[in-house]
Amino acid sequence: xxxxxxxxxxxxxxxxxxxxxxxxxxxxxxxxxxxxxxxxxxxxxxxxxxxxxxxxxxxxxxxxx
Amino acid sequence: xxxxxxxxxxxxxxxxxxxxxxxxxxxxxxxxxxxxxxxxxxxxxxxxxxxxxxxxxxxxxxxxxxxxxxxxxxxxxxxxxxxxxxxxxxxxxxxxxxxxxxxxxxxxxxxxxxxxxxxxxxxxxxxxxxxxxxxxxxxxxxxxxxxxxxxxxxxxxxxxxxxxxxxxxxxxxxxxxxxxxxxxxxxxxxxxxxxxxxxxxxxxxxxxxxxxxxxxxxxxxxxxxxxxxxxxxxxxxxxxxxxxxxxxxxxxxxxxxxxxx
Lengths: 65, 261
Prior knowledge:
The complex is a heterodimer. By secondary structure, chain A is mainly beta. Helices cover 12% and strands 37% of the residues of chain A.
């Protein structure tokens, strides 16, 4: 299905947030995920179902002051 | 005072801080340099920013260079110009991290990076109600400091000078008034350019100092990190020791008694 991930449209076979993270090779320990502006809790990554045209943001920590 | 004078630990909302120097993790020339500077600083708090994961893997993750067993991670909301954005980044930071602490920034404009205190106050109130431990980056205004605390802030982080400016403590008198006005810790955030700036902030009675550019931008960041560590300790000890009053004229240190006539 078509998903917008971090601002770019991608084609994905992932049905859940966990699957998407795996597909994208994101295994950072400290990530947060938003789907259509709502935060998905870490414990729900495995069950949260993605659907066509969802807008997903995957964030982590970078250097800052 | 204990033997080394460092027995007065800073505690905010039950969280004990092992150092009164807090350091940022931005602008280092390399992750290796940052890791060495963090080590040299002796700090146990680092600030970080929340940004999109680099899906193309062009840069190594910052996180592998930070020892989470030793460090408390304080996510900031840098780059947020509206209350909505600040709330969004704070919530994402809490979800990504391990604590409820947030260094809350609502920026007013990109030239000064001064805080938009009206937005800051609103965001502080909302996040405090959501259980966040809010450390707001504010200006050096004692009245605003009071308002932020009434809104639920757990400490206040007044600027010494604009972020990254290195101008030092531009208004020590206001900081002094803030210290007398509020009953929460005061952490000077922004403007510290060199060791004496950090010492001055601590001598005034501030509880801690947060430094990023002052260390990361120095020609030798690791050496400056060590300098800041000592500067903060010296300033704290000096504050606790109680300085002598300033006088216009001399007062001899050596006795006059026993001098040859």
